[in-house]
Design brief:
The complex is a heterodimer of chains A (430) and B (332). With 430 residues, chain A is α+β, with helices and mostly antiparallel strands. Chain A has 14 helices and 17 strands. The chains are: A alpha+beta (430), B alpha+beta (332).
């Protein structure tokens, strides 16, 4: 028996959350604090020929303007590809070009309008299927496909799909599309940065992954871990949208330059249009099933619109492989997943990261297969459900299997009368 | 006309980052009054990790949960955490805490053993005190131990870490990636009502079962499932940054355009059960599951729409426009 584990202990900080007593990063106000705003690219693709920030610098109330050349360390992060500030090439609308720190946000906004930029606009590509064609405009010089260690697609193979289809009684084909989502945490991205009396850089952050972020930020600031501290730990919702650096580098660079506290917070519009998204997914599913309900084979092609830079987009295509045919034992599988660059915001982690879309596809596919052979949708799931020790398409072995138990319990709660041969099944034995 | 339909879906969900190799550290120190400072890098993003991870520490040390202070406020004091993502905090952070608590108990026994002139293995840490196995009356409360160690020139603090095996290279030919912390499972039934005139879809009821190894913190689990229901509904029916993807027209710039499900969209009836098939590597058998609440809703809603109006719409969000177009195509 446990005393605390498994007990309905109230939320550690729940009272503070519901009474509004919890202090979030945007609640921080410091004497002499400056406010940052960022000039973002107005075009989807192009080359920045010229930038003149003098008009902004000369505006009363402006403390500093920073661009790519003001970054003390590396201006790139994530595979050394994504810039903190645009150097020359622009890959999506909303990329950072310059940042201003001023006495208030209105002044900072006014200063942004005084920055002169000259951009040679180029034709963008939004559609990943267009982007995959050889003649498509290149989002990045290396080409529009991410190259996996298996080549242009992430490949997963198990058994022999053509044999599996030949042994099937019915073949079902369907395409599935998931359009782009935002993580939509109530708390927008915000950071407050300042240097302390020991000349260390402190940044109050909404990061979900502070140590991960330190790995990106130290090279940007050119500071060792001993000189930087990320403060936080209580975040107003993340849902995957705060796994990547959005504000900390901007606030930190300005604070280092000015030796004054700087707050940088995104508007909702910036969050929705410029931060990471769950990139769109497109799947082609083909599966074969026997009349007795046994799913024999899956052939799957996935195309993921990863946006302008790869941070976790290619990983999303890799992560599919755990559940590409669902929690079911399927003898023959072939999966090809493509990660395609387009001139859109960056695709990253979000709610049910990279499983939610395959879960969608394989479950509708299960219903379609049940329909094709005239079987009850409950029964086809029982028949194919993972049992203890089954091997997933990517060779992962299933431990502590429990799908059948959830089927039985849901049926019971729903008042669905399952036949005895299904009720006799267990995830622990076949 | 309003038409009702039901849909079923079953899913699995994985714990952790890239099938393994994502470590966490934990540190727990006894304070002078017998309370504890649990130092963690893991951020509370609303999922309730402060609660669940404090429960694990309290259980392992057998001290009141109120005696645990969850300290994660900055990266100077917070030991390494890969991140509060991939539904990994309870499984990986929890295991790191178990290791730290075991280290602390060992040090407590060594300290008291030296103080009393007894062997450490003859001491027991339980019930908020430390006592002699063969003579439970010979004991010291955690408060007394905190004072004795602090003012006796000691610092009783436990260190622990945990890393699931990995990271593993993906095999370029087969795609084999053999590692994984744990898998949890869910089955969902939803009932929807489709308005054939407006194309609007309303989720009327949902019934679900989740198998999550062990519900460390049942209230937090309920919160995650309820939140998942709302997010599943939002993603299934309304949420999209590019409603006309793959077109690049970016239509949204506020929550009036990017429509999230709210309390008003929650099903009137929302029943679920939590089942536990303990995972051998999970803390108290727990598996990661936080994010999966949204996953099973979406295909179940698609299936229920099919049951109601007889068409499969396999893109989401399934907006009223898509429903009306599908109905029009069906008529043709």
């Amino acid at each position: 028996m446990t005393k605390y584990v498994g007990k309905p202990i109230p939320r550690y900080d729940g009272i503070g959350h519901v009474t509004g007593a919890t202090a979030y990063v945007d609640d921080i106000n410091m004497p002499g604090m400056l406010y940052a705003k960022v000039l973002r690219s107005p075009v989807h693709k192009g080359v920045m020929k010229r930038i003149d920030v003098s008009g902004a610098e000369n505006l009363p109330g402006v403390a500093a303007v920073v661009t790519a050349k003001d970054v003390p360390g590396k201006n790139r992060y994530y595979n050394d590809e994504q810039p903190v500030f645009v150097e020359d090439h622009i890959r999506y609308r909303g990329e950072r070009i310059a940042a201003v720190a001023a006495v208030d946000e209105d002044t900072a906004m006014e200063a942004l309008e005084k920055i002169k930029i000259e951009i040679e606009e180029q034709p963008p590509v939004f559609d990943p299927f267009e982007a995959m064609k050889p003649a498509a405009p290149k989002v990045r010089p290396q080409g529009n496909l991410w190259i996996f260690n298996s080549g242009e697609s992430r490949v997963v193979t198990k058994g022999d799909v053509e044999k599996g289809f030949a042994e099937s009684d019915e073949i079902v084909e369907r395409t599935y599309t998931e359009k782009m989502n935002d993580m939509a945490a109530i708390e927008p991205h915000v950071a407050v940065a300042y240097t302390d009396a020991s000349d260390r850089l402190l940044i109050h952050t909404v990061s979900q992954a502070r140590h991960f972020h330190l790995g990106h930020l130290c090279p940007i600031f050119n500071l060792p871990l001993s000189k930087i501290c990320l403060v936080g730990g209580t975040v107003g919702g993340g849902f995957g949208g705060k796994n990547e650096v959005q504000t900390e580098h901007v606030a930190g660079l300005l604070a280092l330059k000015l030796r004054k506290p700087v707050k940088y917070r995104l508007t909702r519009q910036e969050v929705l249009q410029c931060t990471t998204k769950r990139g769109a997914f497109y799947f082609e599913y083909k599966s074969g099933v026997k009349k007795n309900g046994k799913v024999m084979a899956y052939k799957i092609r996935a195309v993921h619109d990863i946006g302008a830079y790869n941070t976790m987009g290619a990983y999303a295509v890799e992560k599919h492989s755990f559940y590409i045919v669902g929690p079911y034992d399927v003898p023959h599988v072939r999966y090809d997943g493509y990660a395609v660059f387009t001139n859109k915001p960056v695709s990253s982690s979000m709610r049910g990261f990279s499983t939610i879309n395959v879960n969608y596809a394989h479950e509708v596919q299960m219903d379609l297969m049940a329909e094709a052979i005239g079987m009850d949708p409950w029964e086809i799931r029982f028949i194919n459900a993972w049992r203890e020790g089954d091997i997933a398409p990517n060779q992962w072995k299933v431990v502590a299997a429990g799908l059948i138990e959830t089927l039985k319990k849901t049926a019971e709660l729903e008042g669905v009368k399952l036949p005895p041969h299904l009720l006799a099944m267990s995830s622990q034995r076949r | 006309m309003r038409k009702r339909g039901k849909g079923l879906s079953s899913i699995g969900y994985i714990t952790g980052f890239f099938g393994g190799g994502d470590p966490n550290q934990a540190q727990i120190g006894l304070k002078m009054d017998g309370t504890f400072n649990l130092m963690m890098g893991t951020v509370d993003i609303g999922q309730g990790c402060k609660t669940a991870l404090s429960q694990i520490a309290a259980e392992e040390l057998d001290v009141p949960v109120e005696a645990i202070t969850y300290t994660n406020s900055d990266t100077d004091i917070a030991p390494f955490c890969m991140g509060a993502f991939a539904s990994r905090a309870t499984f990986i952070g929890g295991n790191a805490i178990l290791n730290a608590c075991r280290d602390l108990k060992r040090k407590m026994k060594e300290f008291v053993g030296a103080l009393w002139g007894v062997k450490a293995e003859n001491l027991v840490v339980a019930d908020n005190q430390i006592f002699l196995k063969d003579d439970p009356q010979k004991k010291m409360s955690m408060g007394e131990l905190g004072a004795a160690s602090t003012f006796g020139g000691g610092y009783l603090t436990g260190l622990g870490a945990y890393r699931p095996d990995g990271p593993f290279q993906v095999d370029p030919v087969t795609g084999a990636m053999p590692a994984l912390c744990a898998a949890s499972f869910a089955t969902t039934v939803v009932e929807v009502e489709v308005d054939t005139e407006t194309g609007g879809v309303e989720v009327i009821r949902s019934t679900q079962a989740y198998e999550i190894g062990k519900a460390i913190s049942p209230l937090m689990c309920r919160g995650q499932i309820n939140g998942g229901v709302a997010m599943g509904i939002g993603m299934a029916l309304t949420e999209s940054v590019y409603p006309y993807w793959p077109s690049g027209d970016l239509a949204v710039d506020n929550f009036g355009d990017y429509v999230l499900a709210t309390a008003a969209d929650m099903p009137e009836e929302n029943r679920f059960a939590i089942l536990e098939v303990p995972h051998p590597d999970g803390p108290y058998g727990a598996k990661g599951f936080s994010e999966m609440g949204a996953n099973a809703m979406i295909p179940a809603i698609t299936s229920a729409i099919h049951d109601a109006i007889g068409v499969w719409i396999t893109e989401f969000p399934t907006t009223p426009e898509l429903v009306l177009r599908a109905l029009a195509d069906k008529k043709k």
